[in-house]
Amino acid sequence: MLETIATAPPDPILGLTEAFNADSNPDKVNLGVGIYKDAEGRTPTLDCIREAEKIVAAGQTSGGGYLPMTGLAEYDQLTIDLLFGPASAAVREGRVLAAQTPGGTGGLRVAGDFIHAMFPEARIWMSCPTWANHKGIFTASGIAQESYPYYDHATGSLDFDGMTAALSKVPAGDVVLLHACCHNPSGMDPDPAQWKQLAALAAERGFLALFDCAYQGFGDDIDRDVAGLRAFADAGLEMLVASSYSKNFGLYNQRIGAFSVVAPSPDAAMAAMSQAKLCIRVNYSNPPAHGARLVAAVLGDDSLRARWQTEVAAMRDRINSVRRKFVETMASKTDRHDFSFITTQRGMFSFSGLSTEQVHALRDKHAIYMVDSGRISVAGLNDHNLERVCSAIASVL
Ligand code: LMR
Prior knowledge:
44% of the residues lie in helices and 14% in strands. With 397 residues, it is α/β, with parallel strands linked by helices. The protein is globular, with a radius of gyration of 21 Å. It starts with 13 loop residues before the first helix and ends with a helix. 46% of the residues are buried. The mean pLDDT is 96. The structure holds (2S)-2-hydroxybutanedioic acid (LMR).
């Protein structure tokens, strides 16, 4: 049976890392996958995590059995508080429940399976463009997909009018996927007033929002980056959230995220989570413990939490300073293309505006890797490679 199987195409993002790893050029640069790198090109282990490792190791007297299907309870509550804020009415009223998942991708897949099981007719509306893996996840869950305009390529800005015009036609019973912050791949987010407008639109139309929150802290700060989902919660709306600690805790390979549900009543939240547990059980049964213990050790301790916030701010500041340096360096090399929009974007990613042909030329001639769409992971730039990357980009323009 296996002899007849054809080779699958490489993943547009993770397949790029495979090609990068196989490249023997010592000057190669990976601007593909969204993994934070420091000024030396390394992905650091945060100091707060080093401390948390000690705390977790000291507290471990045995390996323990399985975690519950919904993961570590303390982690789930801390995640809810981080997303919505402990003062949130929905949280205080017990209408928010979370389940620890294997990464944000795991959270999205639980959300997808849950949506398909509960609302088989629901379609999911995704921004155009969106993270390359969204389509695959919701296809795997069996959900029909639609898209709404989001990004104006001509100006490098958010197409809010196009977005709201399309969302004004979404029928009740459909689901709208929204990026909580640091939109992947464009780096453009709605502002607080626009989030309120979107919440009003959701209330008027009756669609269900699913927030993908993978970069909390990389945009403006921990709280401002969740202004969107808090605006929806404040408007009394139901919602689903898939969130990740890969980036903001640097815990990429611990696979640590969550699926959260905000329901109209505590009973409705419990019922929804009981259904989500069915999706979890047939998918991965229960999540791994270590990453959750680390995150809970940090978020549950005032001084470690403060240290974490400082470390997230340092990552954010470095990315923003690299954005500025990139724009300045490009301006010194070419006047054929204005890259200044890149400083208005937030998070790890920006659309460079490069065509697929230009992206391929950068890969083939200069060993500089970026996603075919022209998305660059700005976090991969540093003082050692910036000059070379900018010269190479200028040469393909
Ligand atoms: C990305 O978009 O590069 C990240 O979210 C990593 C991934 O899994 O694709």
